[in-house]
Structure formats: structure tokens, C-alpha cells
């Protein structure tokens, strides 16, 4: 086996096909898209060179700035929500429910397997105000607060979106972090308890540092996923009201495919790629530091 | 050693070849379209999912009047949600795989682009050669030419005028006479609101039912050229007289005349609100007659529905007999696939469509009605008469906008009437979108 894997040609044969397919369906379109960023035109009339005009437009286009700000805001809020809720659930499974957690785990995980569009429709109905009140507004009216038109205001729509995405994915992060928590040896926890550590102290000084690697992986997963959010926004608000909940991905999609401005759409895609790259690098750099050493 | 090496090389080559051919296969599978080749076997028609009128009428024709044409080239309907139509057309056009007949895009801008790149059949020439040009109503031809750079780029499968449908019973119960001026309209709305009736049903989710009111106020105050002046760059939407129009409509919203949460009301809900007697007025095109004539959908009865033009604004340059007219979602034919069999189909459609669609669905098209059809109700007769008497065509808000400005106008419209956007902000947003093209 060692001889086979030591042979460069063998390695090439083994990974060659996969690398070729990967290059053709991933790298080539990426480079192609980069090329488009320097053009203007569309599929009907063909493309012509446009120099760096698309990039200059990125700097002055307010819609891009708003979309970028929304993307960052959304990514931070949902990542925090997903990971914190997931971690709390994992703690609940491991330290409170213990062996009986299987049913709760399954129930909380259930939204993860639902199609995003279905979840979007569900939340739309739950928060709707017309033609009739959804459950949320019915509840608000029952307690005398009056119904709210959740989707007519960018701020409210944002929070409904966050709530939906956290609800939809916290089960996944709970299971991921649960796997990290069950790996903590019982002996360590027991000795902490014998030393007189309270529940909170155990979590702060034993559980948190020992589950840090998996917590970091969750963060990287989450932030990269949320920066590229698309489906849940389209399903719930379609970027509205106005463009108040339009992330970069949706703006890129609209620019390229609705307004048929492929060149500028590619420039926005490049901005998104750079953003994901920078965030990933920062998270990687942070996670390389050994946090247990302060 | 040599054998070993060459075997390794052969294996490598075989692997690479296999991988390459797999990729080529995948690529070719993606690249092939279901579009029409020259001399298409099928009379393929790509329709917007939301529009059932045209495809139902064509299906009826394929079984009756156009049976022979259908045997030579059978009708095959494919649908795509209206919101994804433009994207689909662009991709199909890029691959040179447009169907024989298709909905020509959400805004005339895209249709004009397709036309100027030679993708559309020259309908005027073809129809004249087929002897079918005379089957088109002259009013419909002039509407099409006003929208599509003076070219007959689409067929008038629908011919609509727009105005305000109202509930006669609600009006008489509240002692309201048909308002002829904007002030009278506002007074009527106020009266209805006080009586606990929602004055207007409107779909904010669609957006355009709101912006149509803005353009209505504009062509009544500034005259029929109001929107053309913006398209030609002679006026800006941010000019005070334009902002004033947006402000008037925003005020209606502020008073709650569009009901609760207008932004989340979709097209069907707005229509049902009116047809269930829960709203007094409904700005809509005459295509709504299909729903009004359908007793299952219309619970207030067609005899209780009246139609009035957008009211006059005192001191305005526009006149009440000028109506916005359109041909619905334009349907056109591809240049590449237009052959004799397609020509036969088009001739048959031109001769029979007008009466079929009016008789079966109560809808008005821009084709002549060659077989006498009795109108199903009074409001249909009234609308047909109005079309006949209409003196001048006016343009709706987004008629000459780019796709981008149209989208932005429609998505920002709910904000205008819910108050999350001021009239000035709304007009500036749309003007910026216009300028960015």
C-alpha cells in the first residue's frame, strides 16, 4: 500500500479524474466569472470589454453597500444564534437529559431536514397579518399588544429571518457540539466535581476549553454558510420590503439574471468571494491560537 | 520496466480519457436545450404559469378550429413562473434555443432587446404575407407599436384597458356616485373607510397595482406624455410635480385605504377581497373580466361590478377618455423556427382566437371577433365599448422602464403606501435605477 501511495503516477491516476472534474465544474467557472467581471453585456447581445468600470461601480453603488452591510449583520447574528443555541442544547442533552435525550435530539433536528422553501412558507404564515392573522399575531392580540405587520418593515423582517434560520439549523449545531461534549472524559468531570466545582464552574473551566476545537469548527461552518445565505431569504422575504433584507448573494443573482448585467453580477460575486476568504482566514488564524493558554 | 511504465501510462490515459468523456457527456447534457430547431415538430409555447387565458384558448383551438394545423405541428405548452420568465428567456436566447412561441418577457425592454438582436420573427411582414394582418384590431396594433419601438413585436392575445372596477352595491348603500374627479374619489374612499368598508383592494406584493395609481395621477395632471418625458430624459421622477403624484398615493396608504398589510397581499388575495365584497374599489386591467364573469370566483355577481376610468384631476392636462392600454404579457414567435406550419397556426389563431377567448373566458383580445359573441354581462359590454371609444392611449408607470427599474419600482411600491418610504425617497430610488442603465 505504501509503495502504491509513494508512487507519484499512482497518486495522479487516483486523484486525476476527481481533480479534472473538480477543475472543470468548479475552478473553470470561477475563473470564467472573474473574466466576466471585466465585461458588460448579456447572453442575448454578447459581451464586450469594460475595463475596471464594474469595480468602480462597486465602490459607488449604494445598493451593494447596503447588501454588504446586511450580509455581515445577518452572518454575525445567525452565527451567534446558531452556535449559542446549539451549544446550550448540547449541554442540555449531555448534562441534563443524558440518556433520555434521543427523542428531544430528534425533534430539534427535524427542521434541518425540511426544505428551506417549506420553512419559509411556514414562517410567512406564522407571522402573517393579512388576509388573516397568523398564530404570532393572534397571540399578540390575545395578550392585548395588537398585531404587527412583520414584513412591511426591514427591521422586523430581519428578526423574523434570524429567528427562522436559527430555528432551522440549531438542531444541526446541537448534534455537532453534542459529539464534541460526549468526548470529554467522565473522569475529568468527576474530579472537578470532587474538587467542589459548581455546575457553572465546571462548564467555564472544564467543558468550554475541552470542547473549544469543535466549537471553532462550528463557527467556521456557520459563518461561511451564513455569508452565502440565499434560499431562506428568497423563500421568506425575497429581499423585501424594498431591498431591506437583500444580501449580496441575492443582489448578485438579481443583477446577473433579472437585470441581465452579467459583468457587474460577476464583480459582486468576486466581492463575496473575497469577503468569505477574509473571514475564513481570520477564523483560522484565531483557531490556531491555543486558547487554553490564555 | 518499460512494460510497467507503458502500462501505467496506458492506465493513466484510460483514466483521463474516461474522466474527460464523462465531463463532456455531462456538459453536453447540460448544453442541449428543448428549444426549437428549424422546422420544429411541435408548436411549442412557453407561457407564464400565472396566465391561463392564452394557453386555455390555444388548447381549445387545437381541438376545434385549428385541428388541422395542430395535426401538422402539435401544440405543446410549457410554463414558467412569471418571476423567472426573463431569466429563462435570456438563457434560451443565449443558447439559440427559443421555443416557437413564447411569452416575451416582463418588460417591453427585454422584448425590444430580443427583437433588435434578430431573435424574433418579423410579425408584420409574416402576417401580411399570410393575409392575416387584417385580423388584428388597429387599436391593438398602435398600442403594441407605442410600447415596442414602433414594431409589431408581439401578438395581441390580450387587449386590455385599465381603470377602476367598483362595487355598485357598496357604492349605492353608502350613497356614493361614480367619482369623476380625484377629489371625489378621495371623498368616496373616506366615506367607505368610515363605514367600515376597505376602500381599495390592491396587491402590494405585485407592486404594480400601486404604481399604476401613481402614473394615473401623473397622466391626468401632466397629460398623456408624462411617462414618455421621463423615458426621454426630459423630466425626472424627482421633479416636484412627479413627487406630488407619489405623495397623493402615499396619503391614501397612510389613511389605511388599502387595508391591512398591503405589502403581503398577493394578486389573488386582492382580487378575492374585491370579488367577495370586502372592498369598494379595485384598480385593475380589463383582463379581470375573466374572473368577474366567473360566478364561482365572483361572489358579488357581475351585475354589481362597475367600471370607471381613472378620475380627472382638476386643472390637469389629461383627459378622462385617455386610457392606459396594454396587450398583457406579450406573446411572440421566434425567428428561427417560423416556417409554413407555424404560419398556418398563426393564421388560424388570427382568424379564430378573438371569438374563442371572448366566448369561453369573457376575455378581450386584439384579434377581431369574427363570430358574433354575446357578452356575458354588462360590465364586459361597457369595457368593450370603452375600448372602441378610447381616444388616446396613455402609458403606465413602468411601460418604458428597464427591467431593473421595473423590478425596483414594483418592490419599493409597498413601502410607499405603508409609509416606510417617503414619496421623495420612492421616486428617487426608481429614478436612480433608471439612471443606472
Overview of this structure, please?
The complex is a heterodimer of chains A (294) and B (437). Chain A has one domain: MetI-like (MetI-like fold), CATH 1.10.3720.10. Helix content of chain A is 75%, strand content 3%. A two-stranded antiparallel ribbon of chain A has the order 1-2. In chain A, β1 and β2 form a beta hairpin. The mean pLDDT of chain A is 89. With 437 residues, chain B is of the alpha/beta class. Chain B has two domains: 132 residues, 3-Layer(aba) Sandwich (D-Maltodextrin-Binding Protein, domain 2), CATH 3.40.190.10; 205 residues, Periplasmic binding protein-like II (D-Maltodextrin-Binding Protein, domain 2), CATH 3.40.190.10. In chain B, the strands form two sheets. In chain B, strands 4, 5, 6, 7, 8 and 10 form a six-stranded mixed beta sheet that branches. Chain B has a four-stranded mixed beta sheet with strand order 2-1-3-9. Classes of the chains: A mainly alpha (294), B alpha/beta (437). Chains A and B meet through α2 and α13 of A and α1, α4, α5 and α17 of B. Chain A: Belongs to the binding-protein-dependent transport system permease family.
Instruction: Compute the separation of the termini of chain A in Å.
Output: 43 Å
Which shape of chain B, going by the Cα principal axes? globular
Helix run count of chain B: 18
- Helices and strands of chain B, in order, run as HEHHEHEHHHEHHEHHHHEHEEEHHEHH
**Radius of gyration of chain A, rounded?**
24 Å
Query: Judging from the principal axes of the Cα atoms, what is the shape of chain A?
Result: flat
Amount of helix of chain A: over 70%
At CATH level 3, the topology of the largest domain in chain B is: D-Maltodextrin-Binding Protein, domain 2
Mean pLDDT of chain A: 89
Protein name (chain A): Sugar ABC transporter permease
Family (chain A): Belongs to the binding-protein-dependent transport system permease family.
Transmembrane segments (chain A): 12-32, 74-96, 103-123, 157-182, 203-223, 262-284
Pfam families (chain A): BPD_transp_1
Amino acid at each position: 500500500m505504501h509503495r502504491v501511495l509513494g508512487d507519484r503516477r499512482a497518486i495522479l491516476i487516483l486523484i486525476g479524474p476527481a481533480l479534472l472534474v473538480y477543475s472543470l465544474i468548479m475552478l473553470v467557472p470561477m475563473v470564467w466569472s472573474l473574466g466576466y467581471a471585466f465585461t458588460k453585456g448579456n447572453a442575448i447581445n454578447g459581451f464586450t470589454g469594460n475595463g475596471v468600470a464594474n469595480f468602480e461601480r462597486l465602490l459607488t453603488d449604494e445598493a451593494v453597500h447596503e447588501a454588504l452591510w446586511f450580509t455581515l449583520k445577518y452572518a454575525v447574528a445567525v452565527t451567534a444564534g446558531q452556535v449559542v443555541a446549539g451549544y446550550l442544547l448540547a449541554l442540555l442533552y449531555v448534562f441534563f437529559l443524558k440518556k433520555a435525550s434521543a427523542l428531544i435530539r430528534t425533534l430539534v433536528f427535524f427542521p434541518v431536514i425540511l426544505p428551506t422553501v417549506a420553512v419559509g412558507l411556514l414562517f410567512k404564515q406564522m407571522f402573517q397579518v393579512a388576509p388573516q392573522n397568523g398564530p404570532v399575531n393572534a397571540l399578540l392580540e390575545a395578550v392585548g399588544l395588537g398585531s404587527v405587520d412583520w414584513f412591511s418593515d426591514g427591521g422586523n423582517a430581519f428578526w423574523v429571518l434570524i429567528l427562522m434560520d436559527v430555528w432551522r439549523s440549531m438542531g444541526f449545531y446541537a448534534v455537532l457540539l453534542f459529539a464534541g461534549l460526549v468526548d470529554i472524559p467522565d473522569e475529568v468531570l468527576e474530579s472537578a466535581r470532587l474538587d467542589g466545582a459548581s455546575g457553572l464552574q465546571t462548564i467555564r473551566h472544564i467543558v468550554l476549553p475541552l470542547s473549544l476545537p469543535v466549537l471553532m469548527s462550528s463557527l467556521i461552518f456557520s459563518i461561511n454558510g451564513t455569508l452565502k445565505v440565499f434560499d431562506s431569504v428568497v423563500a421568506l422575504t425575497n429581499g423585501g420590503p424594498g431591498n431591506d433584507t437583500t444580501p449580496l448573494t441575492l443582489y448578485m443573482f438579481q443583477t446577473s439574471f433579472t437585470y441581465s448585467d452579467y459583468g457587474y453580477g460577476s464583480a459582486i460575486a468576486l466581492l463575496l468571494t473575497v469577503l468569505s476568504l477574509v473571514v475564513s482566514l481570520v477564523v483560522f488564524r484565531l483557531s490556531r491560537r491555543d486558547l487554553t493558554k490564555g | 520496466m518499460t512494460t510497467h511504465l507503458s502500462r501505467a501510462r496506458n492506465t493513466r490515459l484510460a483514466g483521463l480519457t474516461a474522466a474527460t468523456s464523462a465531463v463532456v457527456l455531462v456538459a453536453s447534457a447540460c448544453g442541449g436545450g428543448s428549444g426549437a430547431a428549424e422546422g420544429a415538430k411541435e408548436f411549442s409555447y412557453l407561457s407564464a404559469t400565472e396566465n391561463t387565458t392564452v394557453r386555455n384558448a390555444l388548447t381549445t383551438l387545437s381541438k376545434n378550429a385549428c385541428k388541422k394545423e395542430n395535426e401538422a405541428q402539435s401544440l405543446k405548452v410549457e410554463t414558467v413562473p412569471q418571476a423567472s420568465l426573463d431569466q429563462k428567456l435570456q438563457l434560451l436566447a443565449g443558447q439559440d434555443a427559443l421555443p416557437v412561441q413564447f411569452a416575451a418577457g416582463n418588460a417591453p425592454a427585454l422584448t425590444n432587446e430580443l427583437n433588435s438582436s434578430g431573435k424574433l420573427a418579423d410579425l408584420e411582414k409574416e402576417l401580411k404575407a399570410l393575409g392575416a394582418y387584417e385580423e388584428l384590431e388597429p387599436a391593438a396594433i398602435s398600442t403594441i407599436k407605442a410600447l415596442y419601438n414602433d414594431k409589431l413585436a408581439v401578438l395581441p392575445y390580450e387587449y386590455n384597458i385599465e381603470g377602476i372596477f367598483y362595487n355598485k352595491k357598496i357604492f349605492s348603500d353608502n350613497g356614493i356616485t361614480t367619482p369623476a374627479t380625484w377629489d371625489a374619489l378621495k371623498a368616496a374612499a373616506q366615506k367607505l373607510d368610515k363605514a367600515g368598508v376597505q376602500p381599495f383592494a390592491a396587491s402590494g406584493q405585485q407592486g404594480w397595482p400601486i404604481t399604476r395609481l401613481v402614473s394615473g395621477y401623473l397622466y391626468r395632471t401632466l397629460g398623456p406624455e408624462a411617462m414618455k418625458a421621463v423615458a426621454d430624459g426630459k423630466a425626472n421622477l424627482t421633479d416636484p410635480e412627479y413627487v406630488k403624484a407619489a405623495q397623493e398615493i402615499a396619503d391614501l396608504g397612510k389613511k389605511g385605504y388599502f387595508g391591512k398589510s398591503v405589502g403581503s397581499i398577493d394578486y389573488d388575495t386582492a382580487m378575492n377581497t374585491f370579488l367577495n365584497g370586502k372592498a369598494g374599489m379595485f384598480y385593475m386591467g380589463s383582463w379581470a373580466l375573466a374572473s368577474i364573469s366567473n360566478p364561482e370566483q365572483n361572489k358579488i355577481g357581475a351585475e354589481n361590478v362597475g367600471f370607471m376610468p381613472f378620475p380627472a384631476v382638476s386643472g390637469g392636462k389629461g383627459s378622462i377618455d385617455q386610457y392606459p392600454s396594454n396587450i398583457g404579457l406579450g406573446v411572440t414567435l421566434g425567428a428561427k423556427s417560423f416556417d409554413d406550419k407555424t404560419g398556418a397556426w398563426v393564421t388560424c389563431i388570427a382568424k379564430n382566437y378573438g371569438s374563442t377567448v371572448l366566448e369561453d373566458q369573457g376575455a378581450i383580445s386584439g384579434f377581431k371577433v369574427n363570430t358574433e359573441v354575446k357578452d356575458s354581462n354588462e360590465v364586459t359590454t361597457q369595457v368593450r365599448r370603452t375600448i372602441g371609444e378610447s381616444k388616446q392611449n396613455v402609458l403606465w408607470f413602468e411601460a418604458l422602464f428597464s427591467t431593473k427599474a421595473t423590478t425596483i419600482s414594483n418592490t419599493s411600491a409597498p413601502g410607499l403606501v405603508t409609509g416606510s418610504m417617503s414619496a421623495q425617497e420612492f421616486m428617487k430610488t426608481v429614478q436612480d435605477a433608471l439612471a443606472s442603465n
